[in-house]
Write a structure and sequence with these properties.
Blueprint lengths: L1 H10 L8 H20 L3 H10 L1 H16 L6 H15 L5 H13 L20 H20 L3 H24 L1 H27 L17 H7 L5 H6 L8 H8 L12 H7 L2
Helix pairs in contact: 2-5, 2-9, 3-9, 4-5, 4-6, 4-9, 5-9, 6-7, 7-9, 8-9
Length: 275
């Protein structure tokens, strides 16, 4: 009885029970990275591992995104610890997406002069996917900081935990540079670029002031399994505070407002995840 109660209390650290398995998998991958860091010195083996993990770690970016919208744990220290793990996988530190994405993009995605993930150039023409990817990835931290100046309570943990994260990363590089490069540095860079690349399909080309016509949706079962229902993108923008597990139900209440041509399949979905 006591063991059962203890287990229930442990799980109650989560705000939503649906987060338990994704977090367990992500932390397991973090543990594997550190085991390899301390035990494997063969650069070729680690490079092959890096290549094999490009898509899985890119997928983790979706879960980091969900966490920044609605923190996973009830406890702040647990959230900070999880965010450190996310940062090593995705290149995005504590509160960066909360500033850049939650307090930036979600408020401005209908205005391409302000949108932190804007897909238009200054002259009003549409960027190509490569230009957009580089633009969003390279400006992620500066734009997050700019938004943070309007939200000092959110800016402080961003700056502090970014400093902590990169300080620890610096120690890892100093101690075992090749291993740190292949297990942490390259994945962080690749995942940040991957994140920007896959978000191009979310809004690019949709020049409208109607929120129900400003996002593309991917209802592929496998895509939404691996991304935490990120394919229900109109619903996510309609009510960004809704937990990822509730997005299909929210979608059902608004799907009649979404034009048929906004249901699509991304290149990543078709190539990797299938139907």
């Amino acid at each position: 009885m006591r063991e059962t109660q203890a287990a229930q209390n442990g799980f109650s650290m989560f705000r939503y029970k649906e987060d338990r398995l994704p977090v367990l998998i992500i932390l397991a991958l973090t543990l594997i990275d550190f085991i390899l860091y301390f035990t494997v010195s063969n650069a070729l083996v680690l490079f092959v591992y890096y290549l094999l993990m490009v898509i899985p770690k890119g997928t983790i970016c979706a879960w980091n995104h969900h966490h920044q919208h609605l923190f996973t744990f009830r406890n702040t220290l647990l959230n900070r610890g999880l965010e450190f793990a996310y940062a090593l996988h995705t290149g995005v530190t504590t509160h960066l997406w909360r500033l850049h994405h939650v307090l930036g993009h979600h408020l401005n995605f209908l205005d391409q002069e302000k949108d932190e993930s804007r897909w238009k150039r200054k002259d009003g023409t549409e960027m190509g996917v490569i230009e957009y990817t580089l633009n969003v990835a390279l400006t992620a931290y500066p734009r997050g900081y700019v938004v943070g100046k309007k939200h000092p309570k959110q800016l402080k943990p961003f700056l502090l935990n970014t400093l902590i994260t990169f300080s620890i990363l610096g120690v890892l590089i100093w101690y075992k540079p090749v291993e740190a490069l292949l297990l942490f540095v390259l994945p962080m860079i690749t995942s940040l670029l991957f994140t920007a690349y896959v978000t191009y399909d979310h809004h690019a080309g949709l020049d409208t002031q109607n929120e129900f016509e400003a996002s593309k949706n991917n209802l592929s079962r496998m895509y939404n399994l691996f991304t935490g229902n990120l394919g229900y993108h109109t619903a996510h923008h309609h009510k960004q505070g809704v937990h990822w597990s509730r997005l299909p139900q929210l979608h059902e209440t608004i799907k009649d407002k979404i034009p048929d041509h906004l249901y699509t399949k991304s290149a990543i979905s078709n190539m990797v995840l299938g139907d």
